[in-house]
């Protein structure tokens, strides 16, 4: 008789535990969703470019600025979903290059960057427990650019419309006019600190892998001088090669199409947190670690 009693007792306890687990799930899940934080904030820092007109992978001499706005949602203490918009400037020039052949090429550019992105952050720690956390992020972005340079008088020259590499000519069927809007892959790492319950400060480095080799208007070899002159005029020829001496022979490398261009954002972030309260009048309060009942 002892064994059936033990089995009945075990089944009784299992029913009690099952009920409590189900109740906990139904109660906790709504609170877990309601307890998530929203963040709105801004970013400010420097921007750099890497491409055919940079001597090193990142030439700090042509550092410019970026400024951005973002909104984030903390899905869990360790996962954050975000979206943002950034305006930046990038630049590069041959004039400071140590290689004589590249310095003689004498090309230069500057361009605005306007980027929209979505990304996912993975936080190492729960920032509410530790007060800080390192994180990594990755996502996808769409950006717009427009390379320009300056003439001897300092006037702005728009490069894309000049077709400096023979874009659009039947002699170069592989050289289509490049798009000014392209896709980027943002990824990087940073660290953020809980300054107050509703204020998060951070520092991050974010790289952007692009799918365009024309951020600087330079990619392939030189187009033929006479062909370029006949089709687009002297101005195009003058900005295709700005160095001393004779115009290079057709096909001589003007740039390298082996790698697409990159840009990098490095800077500080500041975000205001809200949400996570536990009542209808506490939407702006401090997030609770857990609103789940205990048993």
Brief synopsis:
With 295 residues, the chain is α+β, with helices and mostly antiparallel strands. It has helices at 2-34, 100-105, 127-130, 225-232, 234-240; strands at 38-50, 64-76, 79-93, 108-123, 132-145, 148-150, 156-158, 181-196, 199-210, 262-274. It has five helices and ten strands; from the N terminus they run αβββαβαβββββααβ.
What features would you highlight for this structure?
5 helices; two-stranded antiparallel ribbon; elongated; Porin; 295 residues; alpha+beta
Please explain how this structure is put together:
The protein has 295 residues and is of the alpha+beta class. It has one domain (37-274): Porin, CATH 2.40.160.20. It has helices spanning 2-34, 100-105, 127-130, 225-232, 234-240; strands spanning 38-50, 64-76, 79-93, 108-123, 132-145, 148-150, 156-158, 181-196, 199-210, 262-274. The strands form two sheets. An eight-stranded antiparallel barrel has the order 1-2-3-4-5-8-9-10. Strands 6-7 form a two-stranded antiparallel sheet. The longest helix has 33 residues, at 2-34. InterPro entries: DUF6089, OMP/PagP_B-barrel. Residues 20-145, 174-228 form the DUF6089 domain. This is DUF6089 domain-containing protein. It holds the Pfam family DUF6089.
